[in-house]
Every structure is written in structure tokens, then in C-alpha cells.
Amino acid sequence: MSCDGCSVAFAGAGNPAMEQFQWGTLPGIPKVILHHPMFSEHSGDAFTDPYRQAAAGNLGAPYIVVLEGSVPDDQALPSGGGYFAAMGTERASEWLVRLAPGALASVAIGTCATWGGIPAAAGNITGSMSLMDYLGGGYRSSWGIPVINVPGCAPVGDNFTETLTALLSWANGIGNPPLFDELGRPAWMFDETVHRHCPKAGYYEEGVFAHEPGDNQCLVEIGCWGPVVQCNIVERGAQNHMGGCMVAGGACIGCTMPGFPDKYAPFYKAPPGSAISGGISKVYGGAIRRLRRMSMKTGNREPMWDNADEIPSAFAAAKGPRSGTDRFAAYFYKKLQYNGTVHHGKRYKKQPLPKSRDILTQKGVDHSQSVDVLREKAAPREEI
Ligand code: SF4
């Protein structure tokens, strides 16, 4: 029960890419043969034969079962069973019963396969469920591994191919077994919340929130669940390290989490918890933001400009001397900053201004005239 989005994500993976498995160009990993309803060149019996061989135990090679989409409750159909989804002329769910126990590992790709996802949402008529739910908590592969879950709707393709790489390297005798969390997710990818690495986390900290999608600021007030969602999309990107929900201005709707979509609905409504955390961050974040602005004002000046009391840029709004408040704040800030160490601010005060500073004025160049390097004509700016 899937939309094929996970296969599309897999095909778009780059680190490593699908083709690298098939070509056998990944160091330490044997060549992998992909049997996939969309990507395989064979159809009919030629396509399903390797599945039959694997089920009969005479494939002659270890195999990994990868499920995309949730498993429909075929048994619930009238007269003891029917077809919500099929592969070849047989029920897809039946293939799982035949293949999963003998597999090196069974991997669920995408949120439908990992936690049921959209087909398992309230009101679904298919009784859809995840691979874990279907096979049961006692399931172990022939190598003793419970179901591995790489969630996401669609998942980051690289998350899947990297999991496969870790699994295959270990199975090939290289390195330690990969670490999975208590729900079978690759622990190194899903142990952090998406919020911790979000490019908008600084806005959250300073209590500045977006009013509509596309605004630069933190999206929590328009329905972002990032603070409680385990996902690595913002640091990894959707594809080729590009994009990814909040990077592209979209709020996190919890698509990697068990219970998605119902537990995160309605989308684009502020999560109740954000009223407390967001409210607190508005108060202290507002104060912190103002203090930081003061530091930025000081930080945006060369020490030479402080000594000369001017900024040599026609762009600068603050060209002249610093205000008394700015000087006062900078004085105490630097005192704390250089406490117990060399006070570079004081040292720089003794630095003489360079003789060539403001050379054009020294040479008598009239700034109101354009300068023609070929000396053919000097036109006033208005004329230009
Ligand atoms: Fe956190 Fe979402 Fe705001 Fe990013 S946009 S900082 S994930 S709440």
C-alpha cells in the first residue's frame, strides 16, 4: 500500500547511490542484485522466479527483504482472505510470510512500511499496518535481526542507502554491527530531534516566529512539530544535501514518527506544547536578541574605525562616532571578554592610523565626479 515515493527517494539517493550497489563499486560490499517491481528489467515469471527461489531456499545467495508501503489486512477480506495488493499473481502480504524468515534482514523503508503511515490512518478500510505489526514482535531474520526501520514520507534516500551500506559491510565481515534504536531505526540518524539541527533554531531561541509559510523565522506557531520529531532531514537534505522541510520553508509535520499522520494532525496548527516553550522563548529570547544586537553593532566595526570614529563606507548608516550607550556597552563587554588575558581592544587603541588611509581624499579626488580612467571625460554623476 504505497505511493512509490520511497522508491523515487531511493533512486535519487547519492551517498551512496543505487547504481553503486548494482555495479559493485562500493568498497567492501559485494555486488547487489536489485529485484524491484519498478526498476527490474524483467516481468512475469522471469521477475518472480528469484523470489520463488529465495522462498524455497535455493537462491544461492543471502537476500534482504525491503518493504515499501504498509501491509493490508488481506485476511480480513470476506471468505478468509483476498487481495488489497499483489505482486505477480500472489498477495504481497503472502510474499512477506515466505521471504522474511529466511532473509539476512527485513528492512521497512518509508513511514507506511515502518509505522503504517497514511494507509493506516483513522478511517482506512484496508486495515493497513507496518511490517513490524505484521510480522510481530518475535520476528528475527535468519541472521537474528528484528525489523529495521527507515522512516520518512518519503524518507531521505541517503538514509536508506547508508543503512544498507552499514548492514552489508557488517554482513560481509567489515566493521561492527550497525546500531539501531529501540524501534529499529538506525540510531546514528534518528537519535536527535529535527529542531536541534534546524536552520531556524536560532530564531526559536530568540523568540521570533513566522506568521505564514515562507517567512524566514521559526515555524512553530504555524504548526512545526520539529522540537519533538526524530529526523535528520535538515542536516542531510532531501536529495544531494539540498532542500529538506524547514530548509525549504516548510513546517515539520512529523512524517518520520509512529502515528503519522493522525498524531500530528491537524497540520499547520501550532502544537499545544509550543504555547509554553514558544511563550517562554519569546520572553527570554526577546531580551537575548536585544543584547546580541548590541554585540553585533560593536562586532560590525574594525578596531581602526573605532579609533578614527568613522566607518569609511557610503553604504553604512552608522558612519559617525559611536553613541555613548554603544561605547559604554562595548567597554564592559570587552572588559569581560579579555578578562585574564591580553586586552586586544586596549592594545589597538595605541595603534596609529595608517598614513594612506582615505587616500582618495588625500589626493584631492572629487567624489561628486565620476572618474574616467581613460581621462577622456569627467561627467558629473547626475549626467550619468
Ligand atoms: Fe524547531 Fe520547527 Fe522552529 Fe525549526 S522551524 S526551529 S524545527 S520549531
Cα shape: elongated
- Named CATH architecture of the largest domain: 3-Layer(aba) Sandwich
Helix content: 25-40%
**Rounded radius of gyration (Å):** 30 Å
How much is the average pLDDT?
Answer: 91
N-end to C-end Cα span = 67 Å
Order of helices and strands: HHHEEEHEHHEHHHHHHHHH
Total beta-strand segments: 5
Residue fraction in strands: under 5%
Q: Give a list of the ligands.
A: iron/sulfur cluster
Which homologous superfamily in CATH is the superfamily of the largest domain? NADH:ubiquinone oxidoreductase-like, 20kDa subunit
What does this structure look like?
It is built from 15 helices and five strands. The mean pLDDT is 91. A hairpin with a 2-residue loop joins strand 2 and strand 3 (90-91). The protein is elongated, with a radius of gyration of 30 Å. Helix 1 packs across helix 7 and helix 11 (274-299) crosses helix 13 (324-337). The termini are far apart. The chain folds into two domains: 5-186, NADH:ubiquinone oxidoreductase-like, 20kDa subunit (Rossmann fold, 3-Layer(aba) Sandwich), CATH 3.40.50.700; 192-297, Cytochrome-c3 Hydrogenase, Chain A, domain 2 (Irregular). A three-stranded parallel β-sheet has the order 1-4-5. A two-stranded antiparallel ribbon has the order 2-3. The protein has helices at residues 5-12, 18-23, 44-56, 92-99, 111-115, 131-135, 157-171, 187-190, 201-205, 233-236, 274-299, 303-308, 324-337, 344-349, 359-362; strands at 64-68, 86-87, 90-91, 105-109, 148-150. The protein has 384 residues and is mainly alpha-helical.
